């Protein structure tokens, strides 16, 4: 469990600099340059992610059950992860109404993904992993909205074709992951 906690602290810590120390981040970027900042950010992110994967895998070998999962939560989680995948796609597909309306669909997608997994899973490692990401996403979204209010971003144009592409890519990615990738990478078949 220590590996999982350490990985979460490193990975989410690195990804929280803009939330808690945006001025310090800006000063570091000016002092050290963008390439040096990105290199350090990337190395720490990869280290944290590797520890999360390793620690979560170890913790799953002897799970500490915390509650009984209510019936039907797996189906709700499947629906919520579909929404999360569409939001993730919307973060990258240009000119879609989802990004225009939500502004930060990736962070909102992480919130939905984490909540879905908390609803469907019931052990300590799940609570640490998905609860940690949920708390981070809530704080990250709040900080992003505060930055938007302080320095309003340009209005984004949207088109129905961009929106359709975002939904299509998100749905296809979700289907691939739900029916094949989740079992191949995580060892759990969420769709039976």
From TrEMBL:
Keywords assigned by UniProt, alphabetized: Membrane, Transmembrane, Transmembrane helix
InterPro entries referenced in this protein's UniProt entry, alphabetically: NnrU_dom
Subcellular location: Membrane
Membrane association type: Multi-pass membrane protein
TM ranges: 40-59, 71-92, 127-144, 164-188
Keyword Mitochondrion: no
Ranges of residues in domain NnrU: 4-190
UniProt-recorded name of the protein: NnrU family protein
Organism: Roseateles oligotrophus
């Amino acid at each position: 469990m220590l590996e999982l906690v350490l990985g979460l602290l490193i990975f989410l810590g690195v990804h929280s600099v803009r939330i808690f120390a945006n001025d310090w981040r800006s000063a570091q970027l000016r002092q050290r340059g963008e390439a040096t900042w990105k290199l350090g950010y990337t190395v720490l992110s990869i280290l944290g992610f590797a520890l999360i994967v390793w620690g979560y895998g170890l913790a799953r070998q002897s799970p500490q059950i915390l509650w009984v999962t209510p019936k039907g939560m797996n189906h709700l989680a499947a629906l919520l992860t579909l929404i999360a995948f569409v939001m993730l796609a919307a973060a990258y597909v240009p000119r879609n109404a989802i990004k225009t309306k939500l502004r930060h669909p990736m962070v909102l997608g992480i919130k939905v993904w984490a909540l879905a997994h908390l609803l469907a899973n019931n052990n300590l490692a799940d609570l640490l992993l998905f609860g940690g990401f949920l708390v981070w996403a809530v704080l990250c979204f709040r900080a992003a909205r505060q930055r938007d209010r302080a320095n309003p971003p340009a209005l984004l144009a949207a088109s129905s074709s961009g929106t359709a592409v975002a939904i299509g890519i998100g749905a296809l990615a979700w289907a691939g992951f739900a029916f094949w990738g989740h079992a191949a990478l995580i060892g759990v078949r969420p769709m039976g």
